[in-house]
Description:
single chain, 776 residues, alpha/beta, Beta-Lactamase, Helix Hairpins, 6 domains, six-stranded antiparallel beta sheet, 25 helices, 41% helix, elongated
Amino acid sequence: MENKEDMIIEETAPGISNMNLEWMTSFWETFTDCTIEMDANHNITNIRRNTNSSFIMTDIIGNSFIDIAADTDRALVEEHLEQLKTVSAPYVRFQFLSKLGRYYRWTLIAFYKNDVFAGCHGVAVDVTEQTTKEITLNWQRKIIEEGDDFVIITDMDKNLLYMNPGAYRMTGYDPNSDNISLDKLFHPGYVDAALSEGYPIIFAGGFWTGRSELIHSDGSLIPIEYNMFSIKNDQDETILIANIIRDISVFLEHERRLEEARNAAEAANVAKSDFLSRMSHEMRTPMNAIIGMTTIGKSATNIEKKDYSFDKIDNASKHLLGVINDVLDMAKIEANKLELSFAEFNLEDMIKKVVDIINFRVEERSQHFFVNIDNNIPRILYGDDQRLAQVITNLLSNAVKFTPENNSIYLDALLLSEEDGVCKLQISVTDTGIGITEEQKSRLFHLFEQAETGTARKYGGTGLGLAISKRIVQLMNGDIWIDSTPEEGSKFTFTVSLKRGEPDYVYDKEVDFKNLRIFVVDDEPEIRDFFTNMANSLEMKCTVAESGEQSLELLSQENDYDIYFIDWMLPGITGIELAKQIPADKSQKSVVILVSSSDWSDIADDAREVGIERLLQKPLFQSSVLDLIKKCIHSRNDTDNNTKENMHDDFSQHTILLAEDVDTNREIILALLESTHINIDCAENGLEAVRMFESAPDKYGMVFMDLQMPEIDGYEATRTIRALDVAKSKNIPIIAMTANVFQEDIDKCFESGMNGHIGKPIILDELLKKLRTYLK
């Protein structure tokens, strides 16, 4: 074992006399870490230290005492050293952190020579452990006092001894209030559980944790997570109970959102799986019809059977095209690429086209279909009529699908407001079908989803229509919603904002309606109201009857009418029978028009037997009625017999170049345009198209250009033609023909120098429209 003398090391700066061993020895008996001596400039001259001490001074003898301190405490040390020169009892005691990371408490005493400050002696004690504990206690106390957690300490009898400030902040109580107790703070169930379950656990040395609720001062409940444990004395006896409580409201909210997100993700996966199943059915069914009917048509020897097959192929192809268009629109929506194309259009004409598409289904199901268009809506609007028609078609298709036979469907268009030439329209489709529940409504406008999983099996559909419709409506600065009652029906309503277009014409400048007298017979009150409202707006004389019997009674009193509108399917006396009984002397100036939802071909023979040559088809549109009235008024002077309407497009004087690498597609274009007698030269790739045009540029009036072809594609072929040193190459119309129908694909066509775009599959009307535009 080392002797104490062996542990003592004296180190003296060169040229300095030995320290006064008496005072150093006396201090050494008390202070066991270090003794030190400094000159008047606070430079260290002598040091005596314990070798077990971590305080090592050897390397700094001759340097300033201030250099011992860590950078953060240098100013403190310097301040105390200066005090030694000024105080009347010259000693200082202070503590600082050394560069070596240890805390030392110093006592320094000044000494003088001839009453002049000559330096100081001092001792140090290592207080690192004690100081660290104090620091730890301080930050622990800070956490308890300033933290958000609820900290509570009670004695063994549940008497409240301590509550930190966080407890008052959490529960809303005033820290100075005497009106607080455990029974007021904790839910009764928690108190009972603490006594029966918690105390036995913590007495055994464990922790009792779990979740419960605190009662706020305002009576509301706060979800909490608690951790209760015992505080013991030196004899390992529990003397106090501590509880740390945390408000988990935010955690539970995050947990709830995560659960919702997980459920939504699972539901989306299920929805997409169901969607793929529906898509498989929706695409395979018409494809099966196309393939099957094609086989039947090829083998059939009967003309009627061939025609029947072609009709079925046509219907199935259109259905398949509709499904594909929905999928493309869905892809555009998910890529945020769905865009509008603006132009002026006639709202009523657009709705007529939609009705023409829907009407055959309505007739098949013997449904009653009514259309009401507000007369205040401008005739011409500016917007995307095709997308608007798509929304209305989707809603009407659903209404027809989910409405039982012989029930009614209503389409209403209303002008809500107009400001600065922008019209806000409200369009609604009402049915008397199966309706849907509140829970089903929440899924309606989401991609891939229908009201319920059995809907597709029973009624068909992809589940995309309403989601696509919602996005289109939003692009038109509108909204869409549903009001529905199960087993009673549904009403889908949407709003859109469209600019007022330039007016075209008004009917009252062509016909003197004030002197016109019409007679209407229809058992449906909606039809009678339609004619009455129209007549009132035009100041036209109109008489209505709800049956053949009532009409004969009215006509017996007065029968001087210009036009009779008679419903074909009247109860009792039918429309045909009623037409026979209209006074014969009126036939010279009067016109009888049948009103029906059936096609003219279905009733023409019966109608002509009683001299009726005109049909007004339901649902009714005011423009259709007024057009028909105008034709009737001027019929005596009309010798044209609609010759212009029956004329075919004749382009026999023109030659076009068709660049298409697929044989079938070339054959389709040739067949579609056969009746126009146009001359068509075909190129099987882009390079051949360039060579053919270059060799005879004046031969061609326009070019139809496929985009994806061998050798060079349609884009490159167009750029090459435009770059030719031929005058016509700069202005010859070049129209893209492609299945790429996204807006960026269309933009790319224009960027390459093309004049227009036609999407595949090719629609004859679109093809003819391009020919009429560019081959004047």
